[in-house]
């Protein structure tokens, strides 16, 4: 079962420990930056937020920490199709809608609320994750287009 979205950063040390990761200043700063940024920021956006907060990290350290936390399930890689990877603090399993008009990425709840969400008909395969990327118009762009 996926963990709920974290509230205050106070939960971050427990989330890291529960995932089998050491609690480091860098990981806490990254989780704090992601929580403050919200949405689905890129590594570059996280790096900029860390710099603005006075906690800059070398690019390699940032990518290593993002990868380790994603592998451990503390972060999710927001699959929005080809292009730059986007990250978010792990919470309920969900999919994404990418708006063709404005580029916004919107969370779409999983039909079952947990992984893999969809069943693959592949005899002998073990599927633990399915990611669906919806493409269309976000609610704001759809409303704007309907009113135009």
How are the SSEs placed, and which strands pair?
Layout: H1 12-18, H2 25-37, H3 43-52, H4 59-71, E1 75-78, E2 86-89, E3 94-99, E4 105-109, E5 133-136, H5 139-147
Parallel strand pairs: 3-5
Antiparallel strand pairs: 1-2, 3-4
Helix pairs in contact: 2-3
What does it look like?
There is one protein chain. The strands form two sheets. The protein has a three-stranded mixed beta sheet, with no helix packed on it. The chain has five helices and five strands, in the order H-H-H-H-E-E-E-E-E-H. A hairpin with a 7-residue loop joins strand 1 (75-78) and strand 2 (86-89). It folds into two domains: 9-89, Arc Repressor Mutant, subunit A, CATH 1.10.10; 94-147, Dna Ligase, domain 1, CATH 3.30.1490. By secondary structure, the protein is of the alpha+beta class. The radius of gyration is 17 Å and the shape is globular. Helix 2 packs across helix 3 (43-52). The longest helix has 13 residues, at 25-37. The chain is 35% helix and 16% strand.
Largest beta-sheet details: 3 strands, mixed
Q: Please, what is the average pLDDT?
A: 86
The SSE order reads HHHHEEEEEH
What is the count of distinct domains? 2
What's the overall geometry?
globular
The overall strand count is 5
**Share in β-strands:** 15-25%
In angstroms, what separates the terminal alpha carbons? 43 Å
CATH C-level name of the largest domain: Mainly Alpha
CATH-defined topology of the largest domain: Arc Repressor Mutant, subunit A
In the CATH hierarchy, the architecture of the largest domain is Orthogonal Bundle
Radius of gyration: 17 Å
Q: What would CATH call the homologous superfamily of the largest domain? A: Winged helix-like DNA-binding domain superfamily/Winged helix DNA-binding domain
How many helices? The count is 5
The spatial strand order of the largest sheet comes to 4-3-5
Enumerate the spans where pLDDT stays under 50 for 5 or more consecutive residues: 1-8
Report the helical percentage.
Answer: 25-40%
Structural class: alpha+beta
